[in-house]
Amino acid sequence: MSRCDRGESDTDPDDFPAAPTLAMPKLTFVYARLHALGEPIRMTAAAAGVPLENVFVWDYYGKPWPEVKPTLPFGQVPELIIEEGGKTTKLYMSTVITRYIATIGKALPEDPVDAAYLDMMMERVHELFLPLNPSAQLPPYFSKQQEGLEKVEVFLKQVEPMVAAKG
């Protein structure tokens, strides 16, 4: 059984430098048994030293996904449940969750231009998810695989000089 099958990330927190210890809310990350949109969230939490409990959606809600889906605001996961000071807040959408975790973990650039640059790169990478993720598109994925690879080539040509210029 892989780490993902056990609700764990392949991301090892020891791969990242130690982050300062901060008072953190209790964070429960609810997602499917996939890396997909969940892995950037898990990686950000590991890099920022933010504790994150990973729970499968069907375990958290105690019922099958088809029954849970219509009860969620956008009908999809990932979902982050934040418990702090007796208050529970739920966040949805992977880039929002990633940014929230980076914010509370003090892992974002202080300079607003650098922070915006990071957001720009994150949004561009996120645009590649659908054309490249087979779990999101089976069976049409296989017929669009070449199109997805072409988009990656365009992406790399766009991003490589920008990353090189930022250092």
Structure overview:
With 167 residues, this protein is an alpha+beta fold. Helix content is 49%, strand content 13%. It has nine helices and four strands. It has helices spanning 38-48, 57-61, 65-68, 94-104, 112-127, 129-132, 134-137, 140-143, 145-166, and strands at 26-31, 53-56, 79-84, 87-92. A four-stranded mixed beta sheet has the order 2-1-3-4. A hairpin with a 2-residue loop joins β3 and β4. α1 packs parallel to α4. The mean pLDDT is 81.
Spatial strand sequence of the major β-sheet: 2-1-3-4
Taken in chain order, the helices and strands follow as EHEHHEEHHHHHH
Number of strands: 4
Helix content: 40-55%
Show unreliable segments: none
Task: Map the helices and strands.
Layout: E1 26-31, H1 38-48, E2 53-56, H2 57-61, H3 65-68, E3 79-84, E4 87-92, H4 94-104, H5 112-127, H6 129-132, H7 134-137, H8 140-143, H9 145-166
Parallel strand pairs: 1-2
Antiparallel strand pairs: 1-3, 3-4
Helix pairs in contact: 1-4
